[in-house]
Amino acid sequence: MPIKIPKLLPAREILEAENIFVMDEDRANRQDIRPLNILILNLMPEKERTEAQLLRLLGNTPLQVNVTFLKTATHISKNTSPMHLEQFYTTFSDIKHKKFDGMIITGAPVELLPFEEVDYWEELKEIMSWSVDHVTSTLHICWGAQAALYYHFGISKFELPRKCYGIFKHRVLDRTEKLLRGFDDEYVAPHSRYTDVSIEAIMNSDNIKLLSASDEAGPFIMSANNGKQIMITGHLEYDAETLSEEYRRDIRKGLNIHVPENYFPNDDPSLPPVNRWRSHAHLLFSNWLNYYVYQETPYEWN
């Protein structure tokens, strides 16, 4: 089934070129079906790229999905045009009276700041508090995962001595968990962050299940016991070239950054990288939409 997106959203052309089934509002409204309503709080700087990455994964299931993009009202994006934000995004005050089947909170390039010093932290806290009663399940990515662990469960982040940057091997810790259904016992996934959370704190929590971890990259996939909050510290949604573009951007800025680990063939940045995590990205989003959103959401919200 398709994902419903606005006719003029730039990601539409990208997805159609990849043969992802998308439809606009006119066609979707003619279908007698109860779609899933997914809210995406996009905190990434290059919002159009993140839109395409997430929509690609949300659009590859048998479920019809309606997507609403949410922006912060207390922070103005410098890397996305005001026209794009005005046309395709809404703010929390406009949707807080609604209920959503699922929600995604993305990462953000603010991880080295204490949470309380992020200029939209109070707004984000209000949104995360609201999500408990207004969203069936929320998927938090990278810094969004660290924010959720801190806000909902009191688990802080800490700065790493060296950026966790590259493609790392992970192992499945609980094969009975529906979120990981179909996963290989070992698989790889991208990471790109300067901070981490304590694996001991996660394992000692009575409210969180650690589902997958890496010897090199630490805790990766976590779930609240009731499945309402899913936390992923890496970026399974990344395209093959995303880390390469981040690396070259940091080089241009003059940053002292190492080559992403296990990413370029032979660790040679002149060679094109290969996507080795795509299948598990699709599995994760499909399992989340099916088992944590569709199967748990009432047909009619009360």
Automatic annotation (TrEMBL):
The record marks E111 as: Important for acyl-CoA specificity. The active site is at C142, H235, E237. This is Homoserine O-acetyltransferase. Belongs to the MetA family. It is found in: Cytoplasm. It comes from the Bacteria. GO terms for molecular function: homoserine O-acetyltransferase activity; homoserine O-succinyltransferase activity. HAMAP family: MetA_acyltransf. Substrate binds at K163, S192, R249. Its EC number is 2.3.1.31. It catalyses: L-homoserine + acetyl-CoA = O-acetyl-L-homoserine + CoA. Keywords: Acyltransferase, Amino-acid biosynthesis, Cytoplasm, Methionine biosynthesis, Transferase. One of its GO terms (cellular component) is cytoplasm. SUPFAM superfamilies: Class I glutamine amidotransferase-like (SSF52317). Pathway: Amino-acid biosynthesis; L-methionine biosynthesis via de novo pathway; O-acetyl-L-homoserine from L-homoserine: step 1/1. Transfers an acetyl group from acetyl-CoA to L-homoserine, forming acetyl-L-homoserine. The record marks S192 as: Important for substrate specificity. Pfam families: HTS.
